[in-house]
Design goal:
single chain, 425 residues, alpha/beta, Rossmann fold, 2 domains, 15 helices, globular
Length: 425
């Protein structure tokens, strides 16, 4: 197939896990012989990061990257502002349209379109069109349902909230633009049942199907563990991996590591809340900040941990950190919130907590019972193999594309039937 990915962020011009997953999906499709064009907005990354451009590694055969960028920083910021306010790709619109109206294009995947084109970009192209809701942008101007920067959202107070987040209100959200342009998309889907339900709760007019995130097949994973040469100690440790932001909940975990006795807490990541977290950890010698680590080093860190702690206090849409832990047969301790509940209960790969007391109990159980770690780690690993690996999840994608193509592109439907029949035979 000939496929297009439309996203605001794509590595190395990115900030988090959604862009990493888009690259993972892109490369997985390319390995199977499909041609994938990724359209992403460098203007948005430059405006929000304020950093020099990163060095972009070469893409594998079959992947073409279309980088939208303006000749000057001022024009780039103007492009982002116009899209954010109008809900349309004002400056880069014609370039995007040329790519998406290629008559040979079979499938368009829309991902995070907030600054690459807004709802207006959904009308471009006339082929199979799928939208993956990596965040809650469809129902939340700040993407994360974190109201006023201090609490989970349970009812709309959008104007006050976006002003608190220091973002200009989006006028298009009150015009019905999203509802009109959503009609051009064949299927909306989310990586978890929880997130699909949240979109319904907050009034999105379309039902969302569920296709989860995945990791590469274990026998083809190119990221091999790399031993740490600068391990901070030889003691047992729990591991936190993620952006150091208030919504990730690490501030609830650090106080559990007071004193000098017992396992340590190793923290991997950086972020806007890092200074506050480091201040909170002062006088806690068992809390160690490791900064950013390579994927290969992360695998070693996962392998050595008693458990991975995932304490987010916001509504996540999935939890790729849990899958990364399961890959290394390491269990998790996750907050009983959002998609973590369904992942842990489905896999049997960890313990859930709500209160401080339950968190302390979970830490104590893993610290004192190595057989529990081994048992839950095995369960999580088996669930990863059965549910969340590349080969398993791509079949769900092909099922979805084939279903839509039957009505919209019969020739593509026939080709998929033949290809998949030959593969299965």
């Amino acid at each position: 197939m000939k496929i297009a990915m439309v996203t605001t962020f794509y590595p190395p011009y990115h900030f988090g896990g959604d862009a990493i997953f888009i690259r993972r999906l892109t490369h997985a499709l390319a390995r199977r012989g499909h041609q994938v064009t990724v359209i992403h907005d460098a203007d948005a990354w430059r405006m929000l990061s304020g950093r020099d451009d990163p060095e972009a590694p070469p893409e594998p055969e079959g992947v073409r990257r279309v980088q939208l960028e303006s000749p000057t920083p001022l024009r780039g910021r103007l492009s982002c502002l116009l899209t954010q306010q109008s809900g349309r790709p004002v400056i880069h619109g014609e370039r995007i349209r040329r790519e998406l109206e290629d008559p040979d294009l079979d499938v368009i995947f829309f991902h995070n379109i907030s600054l690459v084109g807004g709802p207006g970009v959904l009308a471009y192209g006339n082929t199979v069109k799928l939208y993956m809701a990596h965040e809650h942008w469809l129902v939340c101007p700040t993407h994360v349902l974190w109201r006023h920067g201090r609490e989970r959202c349970d009812e709309r107070q959008c104007l006050r909230c976006v002003l608190h987040h220091r973002r200009p209100p989006q006028l298009w959200r009150s015009t019905g633009l999203l509802e009109r342009e959503a009609k051009h998309v064949d299927v909306f889907y989310s990586p978890s049942s929880f997130s699909a339900g949240m979109h319904k709760k907050f009034g999105f007019s379309r039902e969302l199907e569920v296709i989860p995130y995945f990791l590469p097949d274990l026998d083809s994973d190119a990221e091999q563990p790399e031993a740490l040469t600068d391990a901070p100690s030889e003691r047992d440790y729990f591991l936190f991996v993620g952006r150091l932001e208030k919504i990730k909940g690490l501030q609830d975990v650090i106080p559990k590591f007071a004193g000098t006795d017992g396992p340590e807490l190793w923290v991997v990541g950086t972020g806007d809340y890092e200074a506050e977290l480091r201040a909170l950890a002062e006088g806690h010698p068992r809390v160690r900040f490791l900064g950013l680590r390579s994927p290969e080093q992360l695998r070693s860190l996962y392998q050595g941990a008693l458990a991975v702690v995932v304490p987010s206090v916001c509504y996540e849409t999935f939890g790729i950190i849990l899958l990364e832990a399961f890959r290394e047969k390491t269990p998790v301790i996750a907050r009983r919130l959002g998609p973590f509940t369904e992942i842990v209960q489905t896999s049997g790969g960890g313990l859930l907590f709500e209160s401080d007391e339950e968190l302390e109990e979970a830490l104590s159980r893993f610290g004192g019972d190595p057989t529990l770690r081994e048992k839950l780690g095995r369960s999580g690993h088996q669930a990863l193999v059965d549910r969340w690996t590349e080969s398993v999840v791509l079949e769900q994608y092909f099922d979805l594309i084939q279903r839509v193509a039957e009505q919209k592109r019969p020739k593509l439907h026939h080709q998929l039937m033949q290809a998949r029949g030959a593969t299965h035979t």
